[in-house]
Structures are given as C-alpha cells and as structure tokens.
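Posting for a labmate who doesn't have an account.
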Amino acid sequence: MEKVCFGVDIGGTGVKVGLFSEEGKLIDNWTFPTRKTEQGKDIVEDVGDFVNNKIEELKLSKDNVLGIGVGIPGPVTDDGEVLELANLGYGYFNIEKILGARTGLLIKAANDANVAALGEQWQGGGMGYSSMVLATLGTGVGGGIIINNKVVAGSKGAAGEIGHIHLNDEETATCGCGKCGCLEQYASATGIVRMANNLLKDTDEASALRDFPEISAKTVFDCAKKGDALALRVVDEACDYLGRAFGHVSQVVDPEAFVIGGGVSKAGDILTETIKKHYNKYVMKTLRNKEFKLATLGNDAGIYGSARMILSRK
C-alpha cells in the first residue's frame, strides 16, 4: 500500500486537513470547524479524532501513514511546545506529545506562517529558491523565512513576524500587537483601507473611491489600475512601507526572493512591481534587484507545508 501523510492547518475558524502521497501529491482535503471550548483544549483532540476516523474510513494501515504535520497560529518550539494561542484562548501545551498519544503517529508542528512559507517553497511561488521570505498580506501581515532550505523559527518559534517591524515613529494608532507604527498598520488589507479612508477625509481630491459606500483593499487596487490618482497614492504608500520592511529583512537574511501571499496579493503585478521600485531605495547595492513573486497555493499553503515537514523526515 502507498505510504501517505496528513498535513493540518489550524485556523481561527476552521481546520484544514490534507492527505498527501509520499511523492507530495495532494490526494484529498477536508475542513472542519475550529472548536474553541475549554480554552481551545478541544482543538488538538478534534484533530486527532478526525485523522483517526479518516484512517479508518479510508481503510489505511497506520504502518503506511508517515505522520501528521501541523501548522499552529502561534509560536511553536522545535520540540512541539506551543507557548500561546492567543486568538484561540489556549495557553502552553505540547502538541506533538498530545496528538502523538492520541493517534500513535509521528507528529511535527510549527508556526502556521513558517509552514505556509515551506509549502510555497516546495510547490508554490517559491519553487526553485533555497532562501526566500513569504509575506502574507491579509487581515494582518504574517511572515515566514527559509534560509538554505531550513525554516528560521527562532528560539521560541516566533521568528518571521515581519508584520510588526516598526516603521513609523509618528503613528498614534495602536497595532494589534500593542505597539504603534507597525508594517501591518499600512500593508495589510485592513491597513490599506484605513489609509485610503484617512486620505479621503483629509482631502477634497476627486476619486472613484468616493463612489463606494464601503471600500476594500481590492477596491483600492482596482481603482489604482484604472489610473485613479488617490488610489495610486495609497498603493504607492503601502508598497513603500513594504519595500522598506523587506529592505530591513534582506539586510539580515539576504534571501533570493520575496513571495507575496494573502488576499492582497491578488492585486498582481501592480503590487510586486511597486514594492520592487521602493525596495531598491532601501538596501545597499549588493542586495538590490531581488525577485518578487506571487504565492500560488492560496489557502492550501499551510497543508502543503505541514505535509512537507513529515515527508522531509522520512
């Protein structure tokens, strides 16, 4: 019987599970709701029960299941200790021990952004690069760093938090992390809308954005592509912040490429080209002209990266 593994991506509202062949082909995938009862302690048990039931349903032998890789929305140490899942109300626990005991399988866990980076490097927008940085631009800004084919996790699994690089000393609004002036406040979907609304209030400049009762990051980019001057200013400012943050990151880890994912990445070339223009202003000559790519795996990046953690260990 063919050997397989499971890749799991735990999110705030849903848990994605993928079944992969030993060669890395996605065979099937499923989603079930994230249960937040008991301060989130039911989540790990739910994952274990779901995998056990799938193994039984699909008539798999556990001898042919290589293991379960898991992406966690929080810091994870190399030995599986989850220090905190703030958004799920869960404190310290060791997911590898708990899930391993419940399934009898090899478990490998890591931060979800790092896992997504691994997935994109393996079979997504980062294919062909041994060193890359993934930036996910969604409600917030997440990041994952891979250098010489290894995830840079840090001492407590919290490396790669590029969304909280400080960029603006004049900012008075508070970021979700408790600081002010973070990249996330300008380059996330939420931040782009905030900047656009502030500009619309501060000026009488004509703009197609005024025709919308409520704008989104997509609205801003769509109007910018049509040449709307105010929308173009918002895009340029957001990309300037991204270029500056990537410049800081590049001068520390020197990746071959930056891969941009998350909902904002659907804007396409206008995003990557504008980031590249600003990035080159903020780095020394040796680090200029990096590759800027769009992520391709979408919401599946996490399950791919989780599976990769298991398959790379066999």
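Reply:
Got it, the structure tokens are right above this. Residues 127-296 form a domain with the Nucleotidyltransferase; domain 5 fold (CATH 3.30.420.40).
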